[in-house]
Amino acid sequence: MEKIEISTEFIKLDSLLKFAALVGTGGEAKYVIAEGMVKVNGEICTQRGKKIYAGDKVSFENNELEIVKA
User: Fold this and answer.
1) Per-residue confidence of the chain (70 residues) as pLDDT tens digits?
2) What is the pTM of this model?
3) Which residues contact 8 (CB under 8 A, 6 or more apart)?
4) For domain 2-69, which architecture applies?
């Protein structure tokens, strides 16, 4: 599991996918989230603006991310 550090209180899900280089563009992030390909804390999430906080776990394809506060 890869740890992703954020310096803000939260990061939006679509921004996180771009920040972690799991997708190349915002449009791609929007698509994979809308298609139900991303899980947040083990549950499928289709809200691209979902706020992700430190302690949350995000998975997409074979990548698992754990969000930590910088």
Assistant:
1) 899 999 999 999 999 999 999 999 999 999 999 999 999 999 999 999 999 999 999 999 999 999 999 8
2) 0.92
3) none
4) Roll (3.10)
